[in-house]
Each structure stands twice: as C-alpha cells, then as structure tokens.
Design a protein that fits this description.
Strand 2 and strand 3 form a beta hairpin. The protein is about 10% helix and about 45% strand. It starts with a helix and ends in a 7-residue tail after the last strand. With about 160 residues, it is mainly β. The strands form two sheets. A five-stranded mixed β-sheet has the order 1-2-3-4-9, with no helix packed on it. It has one domain.
Length: about 160
C-alpha cells in the first residue's frame, strides 16, 4: 500500500498537480484494522514561524479497502492537528489577512482533493491559529480541526516588527 500511495503522490508531483509550501515528515503510522488502513502522523515545521511545529494526522486507506470500496485514488477527509511551541519563536513575513497563509498542501487524491494547513494570526488575542481541512474542486469538506499557539507572554521575535492590534 505504501508503494501505491507513494507512486500516486510521485505521479501527482511530477505532473505539478499540487505543491507544498512546507515539508512534512512522517513520525508515526498506526494500523487501525485488518484491511490495511492506517492513521498517519506527520510533523510539520512552519516555514515562516520558527519554533512552531504542527502534528497533522490523516487516514490512509489500504489496498484491501480500496479493492472492497472502489475509489482507488482518494483518501477520506478525516484530519486532525495539534501545534505547539518547540523552540524560540521567530515570526517571519506572514500574511496578516483573515485568509492567512497556506502553510502546507498534500494531495489526498490523484487530482481533485488536497489536505491543507492554513495559518491565521489573531491580532486581538496575539495567537497563531492553524486550521487543517480538505479542499475539493466540486464539494468542499466540512471536516476540519484547529490548533492555536498563544504568543502572549512569550518572547517572540518579529522580523518585520510586531503588528499592532
């Protein structure tokens, strides 16, 4: 199954179908049933906020599940995220709009579905919010999760100066 998933991802990358702003490292993979389905845990260091690491989980379907249910080229939109300070925080040139920045994108199907991590800065509460969700071309997914990293009371370096509330 890992080879099939890797092959699909390699094809998608080679075709330029998705790109990632940051690189995630697989730190865990837990088998959940005899069908070969796994929960994958990845560590994602924010490329513009040093000292913050997010752990993202998602469901990866096994070969037997794909044979049984069809839909060979897509994983479910079940995601979770937890972000924490893992070192001194240095905030780079982040997008301060309500849309925030797309920190990470990974294909969840051959073409049409991606797992996305967005970072949003909450000025009033001096907090970084990380949102994980799936993006689909036709039907957006309502499955999402958030995690926040409070900056209040922390020693934080802003490379462009701290924004005012």
């Amino acid at each position: 199954m890992k080879r099939l998933t890797g092959l699909v991802a390699a094809v998608a990358v080679s075709l330029g179908l998705f790109s990632a702003s940051a690189k995630a490292d697989v730190v865990g993979e837990v088998g959940v049933d005899w069908m070969g389905n796994d929960i994958v845990v990845e560590a994602l260091a924010d490329p513009l906020v040093k000292g913050v690491t997010c752990h993202v989980t998602y469901f990866s379907r096994g070969v037997l599940d794909r044979l049984k249910n069809g839909n060979w080229f897509e994983d479910p939109s079940n995601n979770s995220i937890a972000c924490r300070q893992t070192g001194p925080i240095e905030v780079g040139d982040i997008n301060l709009s309500k849309d925030g920045d797309e920190v990470f994108r990974q294909g969840m199907s051959l073409i049409f579905k991606s797992l996305i991590v967005n970072r949003i800065y909450d000025r009033k509460n001096d907090t970084l919010i990380y949102l994980v969700h799936s993006r689909q071309i036709v039907n957006g997914s309502a499955k999402m999760a958030i995690s926040s990293v409070p900056l209040y009371g922390q020693t934080v370096t802003w490379t462009k100066g701290k924004p005012q509330p």
